[in-house]
Write a structure and sequence with these properties.
The protein is mostly beta strands. About 0% of the residues lie in helices and about 40% in strands. The strands form three sheets. A five-stranded antiparallel beta sheet has the order 1-8-3-6-5, with no helix packed on it. A five-stranded antiparallel beta sheet has the order 9-13-10-12-11, with no helix packed on it. It has a three-stranded antiparallel beta sheet with strand order 2-7-4, with no helix packed on it. A hairpin with a 5-residue loop joins strand 11 and strand 12. The radius of gyration is 16 Å and the shape is globular. The two termini are about 30 Å apart.
């Protein structure tokens, strides 16, 4: 069974490039990175963004991008294109193309028990863009499979984000910053047991928000056809934003 571990979350209020704190993952795990980016003029800055690691694996695939604050800010989720091969301390860095943007929050996770990597590791994803204050409820295209692990993230304009995770999920971190645009990020995960389609958070966001949910394929056989919104593109192409 796949199991998710939160490794590090780093608010960084400088312009791009932005780098996470150092972390030392186990060998043979799949790295997953949630990134927020504020004050970026590009319509979809995560599409032209590069996420790199200082230690192999160095390549990541952008799975999903959601707009926030009338799409003046964005949140993306990246999956490594290969499993880790050692426990060397490392960082990950986001650079949002030609647009320096402003602050970011980088949150890094490891999933053990995975065979698939990159876009193939994702069964499906969902999200919400430019939502008014209220309770996040992103939806998958189809019901999740109980054996699969899931990660969810909410990016809002509150410090800290101040969210309550969905029922049956575990909150991994809830943080933010006030320098520049007030920004908060809350992430949660579930290792198994999720069979829902709409994933409703346990309380309202006090401010406008964007959301992302991702279901990871924990099977050891060839991945089945995705129920739709799993992009097969890399960070240089356009992921789903709906």
């Amino acid at each position: 069974m796949a199991a998710i571990t939160h490794l590090v979350t780093t608010p960084d209020t400088a312009n791009t490039p932005n780098t996470s704190g150092a972390f030392s993952p186990a060998s043979g795990v799949l790295l997953v990175v949630v990134v927020t980016k504020e004050a970026s003029a590009l319509s979809s800055p995560m599409v032209s963004a590069d996420l790199t690691s200082s230690v192999a694996p160095t390549g990541f695939t952008l799975i999903r991008n959601q707009g926030h604050q009338s799409s003046a800010a964005h949140m993306g989720i990246f999956v490594a294109n290969s499993l880790t091969v050692d426990t060397t301390s490392r960082t990950v860095t986001i650079a949002s193309g030609s647009d320096a943007g402003a602050g970011t929050i980088i949150s890094v996770y490891a999933i053990s028990g995975m065979t698939w990597t990159g876009a193939a590791a994702v069964r499906q994803s969902g999200g919400q863009t430019d939502q008014a204050a209220g309770t996040p409820a992103p939806a998958f295209p189809a019901a999740a499979l109980t054996a699969n692990a899931c990660i969810g993230a909410i990016y809002n304009a509150t410090n800290p984000a101040g969210l309550v995770q969905p029922s049956g999920w575990s909150e991994s971190q809830d943080t933010g910053y006030t320098t520049g645009q007030v920004s908060g990020l809350e992430t949660a995960f579930r290792n198994s047991g999720e069979t829902g389609k709409t994933i409703t958070w346990g309380g309202a966001s006090a401010s406008a928000f964007a959301s992302i949910i991702v279901e990871f394929d924990a099977s050891a056989s060839t991945p089945s056809s995705s129920p739709s919104s799993t992009p097969s593109s890399s960070a240089s192409s356009s992921p789903s934003t709906s």
